[in-house]
Amino acid sequence: MFIISSAMELPQVTLIESCRSSKEMIEKLDSIFKLKSDFNKMLLLDKFHQLNIECKETVVQYISKVENLADQVKDAGEIISDATVITEILGTLPLRYKKLLTRVAIC
Predict the structure, then answer these.
(1) Per-residue pLDDT averaged across 17-39, rounded?
(2) What's the domain of life for this entry (predicted)?
């Protein structure tokens, strides 16, 4: 128990101070950080689906932003397909890019 708690910062130690064994400490920490991990996935997915190209942003910059966020979602352990990323990009482009959408659909 000492080894586990000595490797932690004070705010983290307060989370496990009522635990009576090292096993209990690990289980409690695991449940807390698993919850945070699931919450993080939800936040990342929500952010991914709320993306829109900004006025001063180029299409290349926007595509890069979408791909980076998709990579963060994948790194968090969530599966996100290439088709989902492409759909997100094409579905959020401004009207002036609708010709591009038509060309992609024809190919």
Answers:
(1) 86
(2) Eukaryota
